[in-house]
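Note to self: the last two entries modelled the partners one at a time, which told us nothing about the interface. This time every component goes in together.
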Amino acid sequence: MRRLLALLAVAVLLLAPAAPALAQVPVGALLSDPSLYEGEITVQGELVGDYGYRSDGTVWTQLNDDSYAREPLLEGGRRTGGNIGIGVRIPADLVDGLDPPGGYRKRGPLVRLTGEWEFHDPNRGGESYLDVKELILIEPGREFGEGASLPALLVGAGLILAAGVLWLRRPRPR
Amino acid sequence: MLIKPVAEDFRVIAHSMGRIFVVVGLAGLVPLAWATVGREWHPFSSFLLMIGIFLLLGVIGLRQPTSDRLDWSHGMVVVALTWLLVPLIGAIPFVLSGHWGGEIDALFDAVSGLTTTGLALVQDLDHLAPSLNFWRHLLHFLGGQGIIIAALLVFAGGGALTLYLGEARDERILPSVTSTARFIWSVSMVHLVLGVTTLGLVAWQVLGFTLPRAIFHGLMIFFAGFDTGGFAPQSTSVGYYHSAIFEATAGVLMVAGAMSFGLHYALWTGRRRAVLDNLETRTILSTFGLTMAMTLIGLAVTGLYTHAVGLSRQGFFQVLSAHTGTGFATVPASELATWGGLAFGGLALAMALGGMASSTAGGVKALRIGITVRSIVNQIREVLLPEGAVVGTGFIQAGRRRLTPQLAQAAMTISLLYVALFLVGAGVGMAYGVPLDQAMFESVSAGANVGLSVGVTDPAMPLMLKLVYMAEMWLGRLEFVAVFAFLGFLYAWVKGK
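The predicted structure of the combined assembly is written out below.
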């Protein structure tokens, strides 16, 4: 009987659906079926946009888990479509010391966030977001450059010059 | 007999196009200055190229010797061409940025920007240069306020009324078109100052953004909200802000944008009664109530929201965004696609109905819906009442007007053309395997210049679908007439004698 119960327990563990709350969840999967992941989850990606410091001691920002977080376009990354991100609410003390969030010529800090996935939170008017409890910095943010496009600059300047000359030499009514 | 256009016709058109190109070229100086201040040298060079092309073409056009007699068909051709060529050149900075999948994708976003639609194919928006983001939103402002109106203000010239009407503006508020144009831009400037200040203050003080970023977000959301455009500076649209106050502020601007400038004038001159008695006001309040009820009941049935507050806030904002033709969203496209049933229908209907005539909003427009419904009701009453009974045909729209059969017919014709446009777009979507409901939703969004998406609009979508949606945005924004006149002009050029 004991052996049978043990076998049953193993079978239940093996056959039970994977518990997504415990695993690291790709944000793309989270957005595809957001109600499936209610509870504690871990996500990973780049913090982008702004750090919005609210009066309640939290910081709101966006976490992107897409190819651009790993390979920025300006560093030769490929275009793979739109961004894949979610809103995250982080206690302000966890954000202190982090590099600025990602934006133009800036890859934001890559972080692993663990927290409660609040899907249609009734206390926040139905918003969905991750209420972060733990933040692990995987890679600090970095900046990169983007120089001018010389051909565009030269052709553009030439066209403006030509337009100016044509305008000055326009036929005037007598 | 079709009369083939002669050289003078082309000179007149080129001259008018020249004025508009110069105005847009000068508008391009603003993002150029932005790029200079932000030391964004790559976007700077692409803006310089774009401005150079606009100015050169503009000056070439202005040098055309012409009698300056712009007739109706010239005006319509100018309007239709403006809304084709300005995005074509305006897309250059997008192409060079590397954030768009190619020339067609960049053109798609430029058309979407200028027509104040808001559907977007930009990739990695969250790392886009602020000056380029500014240019996207400035296109909304130029399109919403009317490039041609701007050109009318800068250059005096003949044919002002034709150009004004061609840009789908039915109502002259003041005696002359130039003074009307001046009024429209005055209203816009007042809203710009108030809107950016309020949004910026909320972003700074409530959301806790840094001051420069708060102003940036305020400016972008103002352009996209007041001009009922729908672009947003971040990939998660207005959902990015996680703030009911910010949504409410944007909502006020969206409503202001969807109001006709005639109503703005009535409000400015203190005639509140005229606003309440207006056929369009009454129609839009009714349709807003109807679509809101449909969406909220539909959402409640799906059980997606377990609490009334969440359901009401999210439902209200999405319907407001749809009905004003803005296209802001606080839920992701993938989630919007799951709304289904009545909620989905409510949103699609709100998008199709649109805002008021002579506003920055798209869609069939409340005036046409009001006239059509009033006309149907009158016909039913004529049947039911005793023979010889007189049925009142008056309605209030910028003063008391009579509902003539011609007016009703014109309203119904344009309404039917919109329905046909939505169906054609949906048909093409379905031909590419998009489910019926999603194909219809996206087609209505494009044709009514809204910008809400359930995920069909994507850089990976078929080329034909991109072209069809672009055509829908163009036709929908110009309300068909200018485009038909342009096609007629081309036909006459080829086949005329």
